[in-house]
Amino acid sequence: MASSASKLCHQALVFDFELFSWIPQQLQLLRLPLPVTLLSRLQLSLSLETYKGETLSWGGGQSGRLGHGHQSGIFGLLKSDSEYTPRLIKELEGLKVKNAAAGMLHSVCISENGSVHIFGERENKKLGYSEASNNSLPSMVDGLPYSEKAACGGYHTCVITDGGELYVWGTNENGCLGIGSTDVAHSPVRVEGPFLRHSVSEVSCGWKHTAAISGGNVYTWGWGGSHGTFSVDGHSSGGQLGQASDVDYVKPTKVNFHRHVKALQVSCGFNHTGAIIEYS
Fold it and tell me: What radius of gyration, in Å, describes the C-alpha atoms of the chain?
C-alpha cells in the first residue's frame, strides 16, 4: 500500500486512514482503503541496518559515511568507497546497537548502553567539529545523556535522550537546529521552547529542516524553501514546514492540522515532510 500511495504524492499525512497531500496553505483529501505506514527518509545512496544488535552498511561510502575506514587496494591505492552488499561495521562489532540513522554525508548509531557513535563528514562549517576531517570510523560523541533515538540531516544531527530531551549539533543553515539562531553548534545543544513542557518522542531531519513530535503535536523548523538552492525563476521549492508559508523558522513551531489529532510518527525527506496521525 505504501508503494501505491507514493505514486499519488510525495508529501503525505495519514489521518485515520485518509491520505492528505501537504501543500502550502491548502490540504487536498485523497481517500484510500488502507492506512499508509511507510514514509521516506533522507538516506542518499546509503543504508544502515541493525541485525541482532550488529550494524551493517552499504551504498555510496563518500566521506566515510559507511564506517568501514579507508581501504587500500592494489599497489597501496585506495579502493572504491562503495559497498554493493551489506557489510558489517567492524568497529562496532561487539557493541549492541539499538538505533541507527543515515544522513547525506554522515551516519549515527546508538548503542544499547545509550552512547552515540558518529562517522562520516566532519567538516568544520558543516557538522560543527573544531577540526575538518572525514572520520571514516565510528567515534563516540561526548556530552550527551543516555540516548535512545537519532536522526541525521544534510549536515546536522538530532538525538533524543531517555528523558525525552532533544539535543542537536552541526551546521545550522536556515535555523535547522531550532535553537533560536543560525549559529553553528560545535557540540550537542538542548532544544528548549515547547520541549521544556512536553518530552520529545520522535524526530526526523531533512536536508536543512527538522520535524519532531512532542505532546502529540508535530513541530517543524529550519528551511522553509523561500531561499532554497533549487528555486527556479522565483518559484519556491519549499513548504516543507507545513506553516502555510515558505519562510524559515529558527525555533520549533507547531503545525496546525485544524483538527484535534495525535501525531504518531513524522518523517522528513529532502524538502518535504510527512506524518502519521490519528484522531485524539
Answer: 19
Number of C-beta neighbours around residue 255 at 10 A: 21
Query: Which residue's entry shows cell 560545535?
Result: 186
Cα-Cα-Cα-Cα dihedral of 180, 184, 190, 192, to 10°? 0
Whether 66 maps to a domain, the answer reads: no
**Cα(95)–Cα(172) distance, integer angstroms:** 31
Predicted confidence (pLDDT) per residue in 215-226, tens digit: 999 999 999 987
Output the pLDDT for position 42: 40
Domains in the chain, number = 1
Q: Which domain holds residue 216?
A: 142-225+236-279
In a domain, 197, yes or no: yes
Q: Would you say residue 204 lies in a domain?
A: yes
Helices (H) and strands (E) in the chain, counts: 2, 20
Q: With contact defined as beta carbons under 8 Å apart, do 221 and 250 qualify?
A: yes
Q: Is 86 helix (H, G, I), strand (E, B) or coil?
A: strand
Rounded to whole angstroms, the maximal C-alpha distance in the chain is: 64
Whole-prediction pTM value?
0.78
